[in-house]
Amino acid sequence: MERIIHFDYLAGQELVEPDYNGKAGCVGSDSMGREGLLTWLEEQLGIEVFEPEQRLFAFYRLLNQYETVDTYIHRSFEKNPIATARVIMSWFDGLTLLGWRGEAFNDERLQRFRFLTGLYDKACNCIAGKSEALRIEQCLEKLQTCQIQLNTLVLAQPLSLLPDIWQSLVGVLADKNITIKETPLAGTQASKNSSVSLLSAAGVVDAASITAQYLSLNAADAKNILVVSHYGTAIDQALNQYSLPSAGFKTTSDARLITQIIPAILNTLSGNYSIESLAVLFSHRLWLGNRAKSKKLARKLISNLGIGNKEWGTTKDELLKQSPEVSEWVNALEHSDRNVEQLKKAVEVTRLKAIKVQQPIYREFARQCQVILDVLSTSANELDASQWSKVLKELGVGQLPMVDPLANVTSASACHGLLQPGHLTIEPDATVWVGPYFQPSYTLPDWYQPEFDALAEHYSLFSPEDDLTLQRNSWNHFVERAGKQLLIIDFDKEALTHPVFDELTEFHDLTHEVWIDYLNEQHSDRVKTSYDIAHLYPYARVARINQGLPVSDGMSASRLEKLIFKPSDFVLNYCAKLRDNNLELPNIDNRTRGIYVHALLEEFFTANPTPDTWTNIKSWEVRHHPEVFKQHALVFLEPGGQYDVQALREQSLKALLQLVEVFKSSNVVRVTPELDVEGWPLTVGGKTFSAVGKIDLLIEKADGSVMVLDAKWSNSGDKHTKALEAGFAIQLYTYASIYQQNYGRWPEVGYFIIKNNEFLVSDISLLQGKGVNPLTMKFRNTAEAWQVTNDLAAWRLEQIERGEIELNNPGCDEIPGVSYPDDADLKHVISAYWKQNNDKEHMGDKYSDYRYLLGWRQAMAE
């Protein structure tokens, strides 16, 4: 049985097109680039294999040890060490490819390279010196006494075009009785019979759309389709829209998740939290603990915006019962301990789990874990822990390549994907090549011409011209093989194009054509020229199920408000229990700001409920704010959130001081924050429910009077002012009624606007002092407001009992066949609510979150 390797000198590790023409019975028929072939030979010959990023890091360490202020690279290395190390390493590789082996450079034109002479021996004593040429020399030495399992080596380029060191390697393999097959030289004339077209596009998205349309028109019966582009993700999305097979460019969700595992570990243990990364960490298959319980922990993290709070603790305990082995790790996340050995252990365990997953992307991730371990093992004197994330990012860790560049889709057809044109082992029936076509980097570094001239006098130079000849041969071969039907889409005519591409367009006399002109020339049943016209369906206004709907036993203030003003949302959310299962990651916005302030107020007034304890508030805030942010507003501790943290601290402290000042001047004797009313009875609309929710602040005075104070971040558009004045502050009235039904006395109600340090209360409020804004409310007291609320709830519940659901009615228009209340106060509250929520600032309330279930195809209702 034979072992065949197809070797493409110009192909990178991720650019190789797998061979599908191997002979039956072969042990293996692999396609490899330079790195792939060298790694395979090293494994065969028992030479230690390393990762490219490991070598770059080793080269960086070498420069870090021996680079001084006297070397001319000092400023560059000080500013960007990894990038500088990458450039100097490319010089080292280019020089060794030419035959340099550490000798001094006496030519003045080569003075830039002189400091490398002193580094040569040191580099060769570690993996930093593992250049391509030196690795080949090591393989040549081993091949003198060792055999390898290889029958045939197929060269994608003529041997004479390769650098001397590669020609030597192929020659030694031939001496080992390995059959060498060369692909003939492909000149420009080789593609003269190819069918090539050139289209213009207005950017990447347009090019992707044209690709999908072109293939749907011209490749419906093709067995092999080839897409060549660096913009494969956009192209795959377009192919999916046209129900075409994927070209395999698309990164899977696993790829995205894998790239976040290590940043989650590094950022969290360094105190730079990332909610998204933590959620990914707990939800991913490579996480150490029970995945089901860990996913629940991720949801608690997102919904409660922090770690270490009560909900987190309960769920964490459930996880640790199933997976006690992650106890130390989860505790480290809570306490931000920077334990290097623990971190290395976590990375190593994750690496071992990744190796067991038989997917290329997991093997790549495991490979990168080894680089991470190298960085973590570096002494603190050489690399400070604060530099870990930066160095790893510059090394490319966390940036996975695209999934396998070829994806079999069906038994009838295959859609292949390549990042750039090159040697092909297949002859696709249709090929789309999406530009632009930039000048690529050469095999050699971008040195100055005098340096190339000087090197040519001392070494057998593999020049940029030689490299261009290689690429010309490869592109001509590509056009010849893809010439049955080749479409080139150019979306950036302003870019500097590759000289070989310019030769190609000139040889085939290509001119840019726009897509619409191309379509006009087509005569195909697949191109529609006429369309059926039908009227749009009118929006549904009422859903009649003709039977009663079950209503849950629990009722919160927000649910009751939804029942009254958005009954269809109430039914779908709380009766049918249709919920969005996606994890919506939090952002820094008014909601998260409000959550932090609520948590801070709860922390303070829980520990200090009475006036005699309201002292040293500023110092209390300094001591407690870090833990409040961590437990309830972790999003502010993500990288880049320092300004928002400071601004929010200042605003929340002002709010706390304002509350205390007004409470003192109003003779408040006790404040109860976040009063949990879970399970308290609530009778509304003729039905008794179990209450759900918490009262933000319950204010008590010595005379027994009580107030429910709801803290809101802002009063945008005076919406809370209008809610009290017009009588549709349903949530406040509900909390007041819950309290009254359990304690027998009606509390006053009001809002505290955190951003403005303002109290919105009645003109006869029990609160007095600075910032208290007395309002003339619609109803004389809370009991009267609740009576209207109760009547509205009874009306809506009666509709639901009949199976009649009014689909959110933005204009509150009376719909035939639907009963409406006759009471003027009830009508006033409904119309006032819709008037407030129909202005431009609140257009979002004009439609339902469930609009697709309601038959609304657009975002807005008429």
Shape: elongated
**Widest sheet: strand ordering:** 5-10-9-6-8-7
Report the end-to-end length measured between terminal Cα atoms: 72 Å
Flag low-confidence runs.
13-28, 402-411, 840-847, 855-862
Helicity level: 40-55%
- The whole-angstrom Rg is 35 Å
Largest sheet: 6 strands, mixed
Q: How many beta strands in the DSSP annotation?
A: 21
What is the beta-strand fraction?
5-15%
Based on helices, strands and strand pairing, what is the structural class?
alpha/beta
How many alpha or pi helices? 30
* Mean pLDDT rating: 81
Describe this entry's structure for a reader:
- It is a single chain.
- The protein is of the alpha/beta class.
- The strands form 5 sheets. It has a 6-stranded mixed beta sheet with strand order 5-10-9-6-8-7, with helices on one face.
The gist of it:
Helix content is 45%, strand content 12%. It has 862 residues and is α/β, with parallel strands linked by helices.
Which secondary structure elements does this structure contain, and how are they paired or packed?
Elements: E1 3-7, E2 28-32, H1 34-45, H2 52-66, H3 74-79, H4 81-98, H5 115-124, H6 132-143, E3 152-155, H7 164-175, E4 179-182, E5 196-200, H8 204-218, E6 224-228, H9 232-241, H10 253-269, H11 275-283, H12 291-304, H13 310-322, H14 327-335, H15 340-356, H16 360-376, H17 388-394, E7 406-408, E8 414-418, E9 430-434, H18 449-458, H19 464-481, E10 486-490, H20 499-507, H21 515-520, E11 542-544, E12 554-556, H22 557-565, H23 567-575, H24 590-607, H25 617-632, H26 642-665, E13 668-676, E14 681-684, E15 687-692, E16 694-701, E17 706-712, H27 719-726, H28 730-743, E18 748-753, E19 758-762, E20 772-775, H29 782-801, E21 804-806, H30 824-836
Parallel strand pairs: 1-2, 1-3, 3-4, 5-10, 6-8, 6-9, 9-10, 12-15, 17-18, 19-20
Antiparallel strand pairs: 7-8, 11-21, 13-16, 14-15, 16-17, 18-19
Helix pairs in contact: 1-6, 2-4, 6-7, 8-9, 10-11, 10-16, 11-12, 12-13, 15-16, 22-23, 22-28, 24-25, 24-26, 25-26, 27-30, 28-29
